[in-house]
Amino acid sequence: MTMEAKEYLKLFQCEENRLREERFARGFTRNESVELAFINEGRAFTDGVNITVDPAMDKMYEDTGAMRKTSEALGLKKVITDPWSGLYMTARAQEVHECLHIIFSRFPVPAVTDIRSTDQVRFTVLAMIDNIIEDAFIENAGVSEFPDMEIFLRWGRVSHMFAGSPAQGTVSEVIENLNERVEAGNKQAIEYILDHSAMVLLYPMFSAPPPLREHEDYIRQTAPLFLEGSLCETPDERHIYACRIFDILEPLLPDQLPDPGLLERLLGGIETHTAAKTSFTEHKSDGRKAYITRRLFSDLDGNAIDFDENGEILTQLINIMSTQLQEIDSFSAGSAAVRCVHIKGENTGASAMHRGIIIKELHHIPNASLQKSYKTITAHFERVINSYKHRLAKLLYAEDEYTENRKYFGAGISSKSFTDVKKRYWYKKHNEKRPPDLSVLLMIDGSGSMSGARRNAAVESAVILHEVLESGHIPHSIVEHRAIYDEPLLEHNVLLDFRHSPEEKYNIMRLSSYDGTREGLSLFWAEKYINAHTTEAEKVIIMISDGYPEHSCDDSDYSPPVSVKDTANAVEKIIHRGTRVIAVALGSDCYPYLKEMYPQTVECSDLNKLTGQLMKMISDELEKR
To which CATH superfamily is domain 368-381+436-623 assigned? Predict the structure, then answer.
């Protein structure tokens, strides 16, 4: 390592950069306990709560040729060759990979408690199989649910092909010579089969050598299991496939530990899965379920696809990346990321007219650049916020009085108790504080008609509402909803989740206005969402809107009177099942329209009074306790 390279690495691994990456990891995983550390040991791993990455992995940031080849393979318009960009891309690629493990993988790893792990050799082989499947799965889940992270996942995988020390050569060169190494007696059978399987599953863009004849049958039997296992939704299902593969390969188990050298390079690290004690803090996690809609480098059947076949998504990401490279200071904090969950309209309980419509539920990682705009609003409305906080506190901390009878001593005597043979004539009075048993879901119309003053009023009210409800520890979520014209698609931007990080409130500033709405379907989604994420007895959905819902795509025309009747039916069913639904009409002109759909509609002719009306609704609900 040259002195110049050492200086770059030292500057990159400063505490400010580490903290920025740690904040990104916490936002990405939605886990404030996550901690991140930089090391220079050629490995990256996580124990489920601690992330360790090596920005200098494979000396990539020093290898101009490898960075150029990786950039060209990914089709980046701006070829990355400078050390700082190489350090950032390598560190962020590892970080995203480990964050996905925290979100989706099981900790401790399943092999630790599996009955097959009777000795170190068997445990290691089973863990290596798990590792191959799990790494393929999290990358598939990453591009399925977090499309903004695709560029980093691709960089992390492709850069392994071109980076390498002169002694070992690049991964591409080693793979090309894999069969020769085995025939020369330099690899055990189990090592060769796992290396070959990882290469085919994780590097479909690379032309793999055909399997050796003596191992061909084992690879033929296990290849479909690796492929199918990497699409399973839960860690337990994926481990079942790993066990099936293990049982097929069991006759080949060696007497000594297999050499993970090439596999570790193919995977970019194996410590997350192969350490018997995987957590310093005994962290346990079952891993979140995910539905795979895409693979990173192939179709769902495992056939390699060209980079260009991913369409506009990758092109947009490349443009974003090119812009970010011009402003190095924005690297760690400025990268956008969003988790995307696809929900079928027919799975919400909505009417048949919504069959074939997809709801895209978007969860954005907070962007620090929105902080200034948010603080401008809170500073401007500081007095209003404090006033509502004070009023809310009075409601929350109001005491209910109740009487306890048949006491031997007390504050007074009850004549009704004179017949008590034990002479318990006295009564006592008590005051009890009851915590709020209320959760609120604020649904904001994101259609084109909400532009201008209405959009601004909705943003300001949402900010104030959040600040006040947060002070009272009342569970709440803020969601922007819209329907995309000419597409069977709804976008639900979860600007603030029920279980949100402190920085997530900045997402409220993302609120925008375009296209239409499909309110009946959005309401059924809202009912399912609030029921799935809260346990409070009283649940309220507040719908802010400015007119009739309208959307069209293919042969579906969702406009009045059909959309009005469908929305009214949705409201009626949701209320009947126990969730309150209240509409706020932004203007006297749209009040009659909303009144047709929502039995309880509040008119807001003066946008400056929107916040007050929202807070009155919350107060009314609390007073019913």
Answer: von Willebrand factor, type A domain (3.40.50.410)
